[in-house]
Amino acid sequence: MLVAAALCPCPPLLVPEVAAGAAPELDALRAACLDAIGVLAAARPDRLVVLGPTDESGRGGYPQGAIGSFRGFGVDFEVPLGAAETAPDRELPPSLSVGAWLLSRTDWDDAPVEALGVPLSLPRDRCLELGRETAAVAPRVALLVLGDGSACRTVKAPGYFDERAEGFDAEVARALGNADIASLAALGEEPAAGLQASGRACWQVLAGAAEGTDHSGRLLREEAPYGVGYFVAAWS
């Protein structure tokens, strides 16, 4: 059963070693993410599952101890997913590497942890089903859900400017802040893809995991510093 969830963005720039001189710009976002993860610890879960958006090559499960690397972003920096004596051969994709970094900042040892790469194009019904399956892996499951909103908020955004982006992000922020699983489940796959919103599939996995539960939500942070929607929320 899902007992808590933390929702965080996953730009590699969230990691100061990657952001370098631009690191202070996201300090408030980092602090909010750590606050959200604190809600997970307070829920005393039996298992923590980290969900992150990936392409098809990164889909599937990753065990505790899997290594996330930021070499692809020009930084010789690695971080493990939780604590383990040996590292599996399969490397974490970028989104899950950010998740592993966030957990490392909290010295997470409150429950065993595993990660799940969720393909960006995974259909809604399969996302909901995957969420139900994930919530059933232990009596008390917590989720760290990674993903960004639209990447089209300004002309300098990765996806250029799209007038739909601000409204899409506003609805996502409202749904995440209110733990509104029906609204998350109803997010359109095509609009999300058109706006390059990487979080859509992971949010819908969360919606499936939360079915039949009564959670309250809090939106801890919302911003779009680079024309990309970033949200931090906590469900308990």
How would you describe the overall organization of this protein?
The model has no long low-confidence stretch (mean pLDDT about 95). This protein has helices at about 15-20, 25-40, 95-105, 125-135, 165-175, 180-185, 190-195, 200-210; strands at about 1-10, 45-55, 60, 65-70, 80, 115-120, 140-145, 215-225, 230-235. The strands form two sheets. The protein has a seven-stranded mixed β-sheet with strand order 3-6-2-7-1-9-8, with helices on both faces. Helix 4 (about 125-135) crosses helix 8. It is of the alpha/beta class and about 240 residues long. The longest helix is centred in the N-terminal third of the chain and has 16 residues, at about 25-40. The chain is globular.
Give the gist of this structure:
The chain is an alpha/beta fold.
Arrangement of strands in the largest sheet: 3-6-2-7-1-9-8
β-strand amount: 15-25%
The average pLDDT score comes to 96
Enumerate how many helices there are, as a single number. 8
Distance between the termini: 12 Å
SSE ordering: EHHEEEEHEHEHHHHEE
Low-confidence stretches: none
Radius of gyration: 16 Å
Ordered list of secondary-structure elements with their pairings:
Elements (H helix, E strand, L loop, with lengths): L1 E7 L7 H4 L7 H16 L4 E8 L5 E3 L4 E3 L8 E3 L13 H12 L7 E7 L4 H12 L5 E6 L18 H13 L3 H5 L3 H6 L5 H10 L7 E7 L6 E6 L1
Parallel strand pairs: 1-7, 2-6, 2-7
Antiparallel strand pairs: 1-9, 3-6, 4-5, 8-9
